[in-house]
Amino acid sequence: MATKESLRAQANDPSFEHILDELKWRGLVALSTDEDELRKALSGQITFYCGFDPTAPSLHLGNLVQLLTMRRLQLAGHLPLALVGGATGLIGDPKPTAERTLNDRETVGEWVEKLADQNRRFLDFEGEHAARMVNNLDWTSGYSAIDFLREIGKHFRVGKMLSKDAVSARLNSDSGISYTEFSYQVLQGMDFLELYQRYGCVMQTGGSDQWGNLTAGTDLVHKVEGKSVHLIATPLITNADGKKFGKSEGNAIWLDAELTSPYAMYQFWLNTDDADVIDRLKVFTFLTRAEIAEYEIMVRDEPFKREAQRRLALEVTELVHSRQEAEAARDAALALFGGGDVRSLDHKTLMSALVELPNAEVPKGVSVIEALVAVGLASSNSDARRAIEAGSVSVNQQKIESTEAIVEDLLVGGLALISKGKKNLAGLFFK
């Protein structure tokens, strides 16, 4: 978890004269409102916001892009408003494929608190450029349906609402779209207007897939207040197969350690493709462009060393969790795959590493042959016996010499690591 000291240690790259130039170099500007006007606004000090809906108990890597963009803007002297959507979270923005399941108010309220706590780990809520936490339930709960339609709804044109990508995709699908989710963009537009009126907020950041919802706010502010306000939309970060990071795709990497362990976080980044790692360093770390240029050379000249991936994994795991957790995850990876001593790992780190491997629950006193079959490292007892006779099986990094051996001399917490060859590893948990 980020500390005041770690936040104070963060800095933007001083080689850039303007924050917009650094954001563009890092690949964080996919879309924006008028760039010249945006540059002028960011040359002074502005208040800006980004919203996070509590549709899950944790933020994920897609949200981390926004948090780090906010932090970079804060480091440039601007004032962040971190909006956790206690109201919009009761609805959820339209997915392109199907209607969301509505969560009950108590659940959403609990998730609001969890997401607010996560925001506090990445933004500085003290000092000259202190961030402020806001909840859109505070200003929507007092509206009656009639007041909402009269004061806010009258400014929205249905034709334009229908043209939004998520809405049009749903209209053309078998599931259609409910009036509830169709109205989401009205609520988000209302957020920008309220924050403009309450705090002088003149910019919103968000993902490029939210562009339709983002422009709902700029349009509303312009209609009600006659003022032009600004937007920055970051690009979607995608996997090698083109799918975006995010819970809707079923492949989320969560910022909550209970949902994605520090070891799993570290391994995720360690496995970054060479083709992607430099872009990931730009987006997800505070390394300067001079430092990143050095890693670019390493990737080009000595990709087998994976130095860029190691630095990326360490930096992001530290950012999301802590330096101690990042180093423990690194040590676990070295112990399992790099010739380190698995006995040096503490129980928590060892457990989080083994659950990421193929694993099985087995009875105490299980034979090595049975254990190999149980975890899928052997297709049968005879296959397991041949592997032992070939000298390729180890338990807790000790070679097994006998086909009669049982799994004993367990690791801390009564766990065991079994392997066939150098790369085929599995975990054993005991009943």
Task: Itemize the secondary structure elements and their pairings.
Blueprint: H1 4-9, H2 19-25, E1 31-32, H3 35-43, E2 47-52, H4 61-75, E3 79-84, H5 105-122, E4 132-135, H6 137-140, H7 145-151, H8 158-162, H9 165-171, H10 179-182, H11 184-199, E5 201-207, H12 211-225, E6 230-234, H13 262-270, H14 274-284, H15 289-301, H16 307-320, H17 323-337, H18 347-354, E7 359-362, H19 368-374, H20 381-389, E8 393-395, E9 398-399, E10 416-420, E11 424-430
Parallel strand pairs: 2-3, 2-5, 3-4, 5-6, 7-11
Antiparallel strand pairs: 1-6, 8-9, 8-10, 10-11
Helix pairs in contact: 11-12, 13-16, 13-17, 14-15, 14-16, 16-17, 19-20
Care to describe what's here?
The chain is of the alpha/beta class. It folds into 3 domains: 235 residues, 3-Layer(aba) Sandwich (Rossmann fold); 84 residues, Tyrosyl-Transfer RNA Synthetase (Orthogonal Bundle); 75 residues, Structural Genomics Hypothetical 15.5 Kd Protein In mrcA-pckA Intergenic Region, Chain A. The protein is 46% helix and 12% strand. The chain has 20 helices and 11 strands. A 6-stranded mixed β-sheet has the order 1-6-5-2-3-4, with helices on both faces. Strand 2, helix 4 and strand 3 form a beta-alpha-beta unit.
Features:
single chain; 431 residues; alpha/beta; Rossmann fold; Tyrosyl-Transfer RNA Synthetase; Structural Genomics Hypothetical 15.5 Kd Protein In mrcA-pckA Intergenic Region, Chain A; 3 domains; six-stranded mixed β-sheet; five-stranded mixed β-sheet; 20 helices; 12% strand
